[in-house]
Amino acid sequence: MLRYTRVLRRFDWGIVIPMLLLVAFGLTAIWSIALSRDSDFQWFHRQALFALVGLVLFLLASLGNYMIFRRATRLLYVAGIALLAAVLAVGVTVRGTTGWFSIGVFSIQPVEFVKILLVLLLAKVLSEELALRRSLWPIFRSGIDAGVLIGLVLLQPDLGSALILIALWGAMLLLFGIRPRHAVVIGIALIVIATLGWTVFLKEYQRDRIRAFLNPTVDPLGRGYNVVQSMVAVGSGELMGRGLGSGSQGQLRFLPEGRTDFIFAVIAEELGFVGAGIILTLFALLIFRMLAVARRARDHFTMFLLLGTALLFTIEFTANVGMNLGMLPVVGVTLPLVSYGGSSLIAHLILLGIIHSVSMRVRSVG
User: Fold this and answer.
1) CB neighbour class for 296 (10 Å; exposed up to 12, middle 13-18, buried from 19)
2) What is the pLDDT of residue 104?
3) Shortest CA distance to 316 belongs to which of 13, 120, 59, 112?
């Protein structure tokens, strides 16, 4: 009993409490949506099971030695490539994207775990190349590693996840400290890639999403429908919201993806500006806590691991909330820890477990 008490004292509640509250917010929103769409509450029960599994894995990762992941990064990288290749061959296609393995009543989306892998991979590569940070070699090496993963994701095609991976790679390089002229070269390369992506890789429905972002009112009942309904939901929540289970947009099925891509709009409608503000505050607390631990990191790998995780959460949060508010294109990015989806929830909880393991050890030494 004394041993467990010591472990609890080492917990970083600045990470654990916001994490648990965000998971609780997600479960509450999914329960609310299920009131009108899911008579036997299967979504809620499944998400609760995913949360339980994820929290167990969070504890295991927290109590383990996070440096194991540094040593196993290359092995995990090969496994990630194999999973992305396998899902292209035998995966299930949903709304034009072949990105899931179907196992009974459950589905696994490998790209969610690949996001963790890219954080680990970039932390390892960039920490090893600090002496060459002013040269092109770290950009080339990390770009090749990340490019293989991004290319396989684009073949699904999963534009949203690919953009998250690209943004993570670019942001990590900026933190790494590359030369301004190298950043310009990367920017030009990304423009070329974006042009090729628009003409070669993107499906017509994905182009429609971007067109809808530029002007959603042109086709409010077609390609701009989700954006318009999301903005209506957010605006109608006002200060205190309409109450759980009382939001018209979510309950009357005006938001087709209310439990996944547009769960923030559901929360804003039912809990108002206050509920949306709490979500924003919890994410801010979680991210700032990671940055605080990063300042005390004992080695460069640990520092980049913490910064990469903070960036991943920031990018995903910004992308999801931005598309809910009509400020960014709808590219199918879920809200971390909150949106429905077992792969996303479990993957993010594992990553936070690794980060919590770092924090426990940094604080015990400090």
Assistant:
1) middle
2) 76
3) 112
pLDDT in tens, 191-200: 777 777 677 6
State how far the Cα of 213 lies from the Cα of 223, in Å rounded to an integer: 9
What is the DSSP secondary-structure string of 61-109?
A: HHHS-THHHHHTHHHHHHHHHHHHHHHHHHPEEETTEEEEEEETTEEE-
d(Cα 361, Cα 366) in Å, to the nearest integer?
8
- With a cut of 70, list the residues of the chain below it in pLDDT: 1-8, 36-39, 131, 197, 200-203, 205-206, 208-224, 246-254, 363-366
- Residue entry with tokens 């990015």: 333
Please tell me the predicted confidence (pLDDT) of residue 112. Answer: 96
Structure tokens at 187: 């920017």
Q: Where are the alpha helices (DSSP H) in the chain?
A: 2-10, 13-37, 42-63, 67-71, 73-90, 110-128, 137-154, 159-176, 180-196, 204-214, 225-236, 248-251, 263-294, 300-324, 342-365
Q: Is-contact 146 165, C-beta < 8 A?
A: yes
Q: CA-CA distance, 117 to 315, in Å (whole number)?
A: 16
d(CA 127, CA 304): 7
CA distance 243 to 47: 22
pLDDT, position 136: 79
Report phi then psi at 103, rounded to 5.
Answer: -125, 95
Closest CA to 49 of 308, 348, 341, 354: 341
Token pair in block for residue 189: 């390369």
CB-CB contact of 321 with 309 (8 Å)? no
19 and 11 Cβ atoms separated by less than 8 Å: no
pTM value > 0.85: yes
Residue written as token pair 């790209």: 111
* pLDDT at residue 7, as a whole number: 63
